[in-house]
Amino acid sequence: MNRGWLCLAALLACGKARSQPDAGVPVVAVAPSVAPAVAPSTVSADVTVPTEALKTEAPEENPRSEMVKLKLAVWPTIPGFIYWGAKKLGPIEPKPLELLRPRYSGPMDIVVKADGFLNYHARLYTDRDDRLTLRLVRKEDGSKVFGYRATVPVR
Known about the structure:
There is one protein chain. The chain is mainly β. It has one helix and seven strands; from the N terminus they run H-E-E-E-E-E-E-E. It has one helix spanning 3-14, and strands at residues 67-75, 80-84, 87-91, 97-102, 108-114, 120-124, 130-135. The two termini are 51 Å apart.
């Protein structure tokens, strides 16, 4: 709801609806600030809470440079390749794949393909230095991935 409807509902609920509010008195609608409680039975026991403090991301070395550095790490390191459209960018290796691209040249939609694993589609952005780590999923575990659909063989 927008603010105007909330104010009107509050005025009608109080029984003091006026055609015009007083000039010096602002009308304010206050939403309840208490969040609903979560039942203990709905909280998963396998959630791990990190014990170390969150680290801030290091600022970009030169935010006005003409080129950006894109890093793509893939885990596990298995035989496979990283593609950008039909272009093969490189193999999956233990060290991240590093790319230099012109700044603001548009997003890069990449696909990681490896035998026995689901294809992984991802996007790297060229408006800043970007780093992405991907975790590949075995084909037999695909049903555990949100949004997964098994492919139907074409006859």
